[in-house]
# Entry
Amino acid sequence: MANRRFAVHEIRNIIVRMRLGESDRQLAKAGLIGRIKAARIRSLADEKGWLDKSVELPANLEIESVVMKPSKQKISGSIVKPYAKQVEKWIDEGITATVIHRNLVNRYRFEGSYQSVKRYAARFKQKKPVTIILDFKPGEAVQVDFGTGPVLLDTRTGEYVKTWFFVMTLAYSRHQYLEFVLNQKVETWLGCHRRAFEFFGGVPGKAIIDNPKCAITKACYQDPEVQRSYAEYAEGYGFLISPCPVADPKKKGIVESGVKYVKKNFLPLLEPRDLYDLNCQAHKWVMGTAGNRIHGTTRQRPLSSFTEMEKDFLRPLPDVAPEVLSWTRAKLHGNCHVQFEKCYYSAPFRLVHQTLWLRCTEKSLQIYHENKLVAVHPRLNKPGQRSTVREHLPPEAQAYLMADPQWCLKQAAKTGERCLELMEIQFSDKVLDKLRSMQGLLRLGSKYGKKRLEAACARAIDHGRPTYSAVKQILARGLDQEVDHSEPLDEIYSGQARFIRQQAMIQ
# Structure
């Protein structure tokens, strides 16, 4: 008791008992104070006239100033003073007194004790910031966050997959929605919101969130940028989005505590078979253990508090739930296709190398340029799949794709029977692909006319050379216009003059 420091209310009690006639020995026997200290306090009280019963005792502040000695902790003569700047810098960086003492010894051959460093550091420790508890009205807000879930075995692939859990906690009742998912994509984020609102049976006034990429595209203290998909979703449901400042999770401490509670109370010793079984157990836990516990802050059961006091304050669900979709930007490549989740979708060739907006739903993908819809495709699911609209391609590419064998045969039939016959002969080749040459054959009709093309095809077939090259040479030489077609075509390609004499006749 010799080194014990008394509180002012204890000193006041001792003076009161002295006024009632108790001696220093009696006070010591009662275990209130030692005789030496009692004698000192009696002397000070008698000097001030406080032992007189007719005089009212002063306030505690005056008793403290007279009886209790002020702290005389001074650092002016501390052995640590020569290293003050370095020590204060380390303290600001959060380094402990133990590490500071060790570094002083190693670097500067410091000879002082650890206690001297500890006492010096205690005077410069930064004060902890003052916090306030935010009160929320029923239905006013929810707080939302993701947490890391267990690793599960995928029975389809035999591989282990990571999981995350989505937590939405009502700020008033502390009732929560819990769901385990395989990713943190925009569609997953929005889908979890929908199922949470349906679980609560209503929509809160605002959602207090962190800054995940699926919700906030640019985190900023003053002007955060909300993901376009999430903004449309919030507008459809009628709630406000309230992002926390960057790296300040305390602004949503309710759900932060909820995440810790899931990790410490639900996940330990859990053995789920698969994701479906995990979510079934999570729902049972929320409606049982978590919902019926006495909450450490509210001192109420979250499920009862929600049912009795908060549920009716939630906004009603819309008649038609907003569509789960995602907006993303993509560049149109030189092949007239954009890429989204390893699948390819075409857009008009005039927009090549420009950045477009993709509006993706579960069943469709829409492409916008400057808020104008330019393409619509069915949503593809298998990587590498491609959805192409022919009209999106350049004219030359469209012409090539349109001129398939069936189209060529139809055009040849319009030209004539012999042209169709020649083309059928060419397409019957089982070794070479003759599509390009037959496309060229039809172009000859545009240059020379269909009648001449028909005649040239007839001459080529009659002379046993039903090829594109033969028809082209016939038209170029005008042989299709001659009446006598008996001249063998081999001479055209023999490289000799038509009327050259035999060498024997010259001699």
Summary: Residues 275-290 form the longest helix (16 residues).
